[in-house]
Every structure is written in C-alpha cells, then in structure tokens.
Amino acid sequence: MKIALLFSSKRGMARALAPFLFEDRVEEGEEPPPDLLAECDSDETITAVQQALQKFHQVIMIESDEQAYLRLMEEKPDLVFNIAERLFGPNRESHIPTICEMLNIPYTGSDPLTLAICLDKSRAKEILSYHRIPNPDFRVIENPDDIPARLKYPLIVKPLYEGSSKGIKDNSVVNNRRELKAKIVEIKKLYDQPAIVEKFLTGREFTVGVLGNYPDLEILPIVEIDHSQLPAGARPIYSYEAKWVWDTPDRPLEIFCCPADLSEELKNAIEKVIRDTCRLLRIRDWARIDVRLDERGVPNILEINPLPGILPNPEENSCLPKAARAAGYSYDQLINRVVCEACRRYGLSVEPYREYSRPAAVMPGLGGTDGR
C-alpha cells in the first residue's frame, strides 16, 4: 500500500508561513510567541513515523504546506497518515483531512469537524456540558473590559484554540482580577485569539491514551502527572515550562507515573468519562485526553487531543507513546496500530500487519518492549 505521511515540520512551517504572517508584527517591533512552533513535528518524530510505516508500506513524504493539495493529487496514495497540525486559525488541524475528503483519499484519525471542535475548547466543552460530561466551569473572554465583576478564584486562563500547552504558562493560574486581565491581554497580543477562563481544579491530574473506534476502544494504562516533581514554587499544572523548558532529554522531569496508582473505582470512573467523550465527539483511531479530579474527586475532562503528540524518544516524556509502551506496544507497533484502525474503518486490508499491531507482550518471539 502507498501511504502519504502528512506532517507539519518546524522548519517547513517556519519557512512557509511565519515570515509572511508575522511581517506586520516584525515591522512594529513585536516578536511572535516563543511557542509558535511547539505543535510542529521535530525531524526525529517525522523520521520515526516514516520508518515505522516503511516496515509494510511505500511511504511518500509530504509537508502540509500550500503544495500539499497538488502533491496529494499527483501521488494518489491509498491512505494518508495524518500528523499535520499547521499553525494558524481554529480550523488548522482540519486542513489536511478536508483536502483528503475533497480528493476522496482515506486518512488516519478524526474528521475535520471533530478536529475543529476539539481545538476550539469552548465548542468541545459546550457539547460535553450539554451531555453532562464533567468539565470545569468556563467562560470565553476576548476583551479585558468584559471581565465579570464577580468571579470565584483561582482560575486558569488559556488561549481558546491552541494545543501542546501553548500559552499555558506557570502564571496562567490567576488569583484576582488584575492577574486575570493581564493574562487576557497577553493571550490577545501573542495569539490573536480570545481567552478561555476556567475554574481551576486542584485534584489529581491524568492523561489517557485511547486507540480504536467506539465501541471497540482500547484505553491504554493511565498516566498520572505528579506535580510534586515540578520545581519548588511552580504551579501544580502541566504548563509550557513543565513540558518544554524544565523537562529536557538530558535532565527529564520524573513527572509521570504510568500506570497510575488508582483504586478500581477511580479507574472505572476515568475510563467511563473517556469512553463517553470519544463517543460524543466521534473520536477516530487514536487520541489522548487530559483529565483532572475536582474537589469531590470526580474526573473532569480538561482537553481532548485527537492529534496526540508522538515523540519517539522515551526520555522526552511524550504521554501517548509512554502509555503505549506500558501496554506492551513498541513505537512502530503504535504507529501501525493506527493504520490498522483506519484501514478497518475504510474496509481496506489489515492482513499485512494484523499480528504486528498487537502488543509485544502477547506476541511470540518479541520478548518485551523497547524503551522505558
């Protein structure tokens, strides 16, 4: 099978988009946000996914730039493996899946509507709230003059449609109106979008990897985020600093516990809210969903990531690969499992990798997993 790997490389996105879209800011002496390229793929990740796919398929590499549509028309792949994030706008993760649907090319992962809804945090939360799926109380604020007079603090302030902890810094938890106003102004200036302001939950925090399609979902071992491992004085959140500054390959933060130490009751409660979320938002093939307990110990949905991060290096604390390793999957198996799930949805053959996509722990002759 010929598979096109669609990616958004840091180098490619910077070259194709940033010089043009930030030209006016440069002229005014402004700098783009330091985390502009945080969601783009490293060369290491792109190569690792390519090598995993090449075990069974011919792989065509396509950057998700303005030439992607023409490249897909020319190559006519049997399937697109989509990890393209793009850079700007609330629908940026939907660009490549939309092109695939225009060209009638099967692709991995969720459809354009689901990707757009999950990236726009307020839209996802509105759907969850309508169906009584627990999530923190929230409001969207674009203008600091629109801050209500009475709010209960602490609150956490985020860009409305970003991922990879972009815009969520150690000072994103605010305790008063002055701090809230400053964060809203900062988000508007740096990301040119409204802020979503949520009740700050103080309970345990988890992230949960999911493979498959409802109702046949595999919930991977749950990862707990241990805030006690953050530097002294840091807020108990998985911030941009925690993800990209304090945590480095040579000095990784031992911030994750996988599998999390959970009672059977809490594990079942988390898995139920994950299954309900995947069903309601029509998540396909794979995802990573962030959960935090409220003051009553009830699991609340924080974020839904239908295009999860997949850094291949075990030392880089990428949560979905970490959970997959705990379940017995190698990195290559994780990637090909996603292909397998997409092929099942489209009625394509899964025979070439049916056995390979099973966890190594249950596969004869493999004798365990790679990495930590």
Which helices and strands appear, and what pairs or packs with what?
Layout: E1 2-7, H1 10-16, H2 18-21, H3 23-27, H4 43-54, E2 58-63, H5 68-75, E3 79-82, H6 95-102, H7 112-119, H8 121-130, E4 138-141, E5 155-159, E6 173-174, H9 177-191, E7 195-199, E8 205-213, E9 216-219, E10 223-225, H10 240-245, E11 256-257, H11 264-281, E12 286-293, E13 299-305, H12 319-327, H13 331-346
Parallel strand pairs: 1-2, 1-3
Antiparallel strand pairs: 4-7, 5-6, 5-7, 8-9, 8-10, 8-12, 10-11, 12-13
Helix pairs in contact: 4-13
Structure overview:
This protein has three domains: 2-107, no CATH class; 137-199, 2-Layer Sandwich (Dna Ligase, domain 1); 205-362, 2-Layer Sandwich (D-amino Acid Aminotransferase, Chain A, domain 1). The chain is 34% helix and 17% strand. It is built from 13 helices and 13 strands. It has helices spanning 10-16, 18-21, 23-27, 43-54, 68-75, 95-102, 112-119, 121-130, 177-191, 240-245, 264-281, 319-327, 331-346; strands spanning 2-7, 58-63, 79-82, 138-141, 155-159, 173-174, 195-199, 205-213, 216-219, 223-225, 256-257, 286-293, 299-305. Strands 8, 9, 10, 11, 12 and 13 form a six-stranded antiparallel sheet that branches. A four-stranded antiparallel sheet has the order 4-7-5-6, with helices on both faces. α4 (43-54) packs across α13. The longest helix has 18 residues, at 264-281. The protein is globular, with a radius of gyration of 20 Å. It starts with a strand and ends in a 26-residue tail after the last helix.
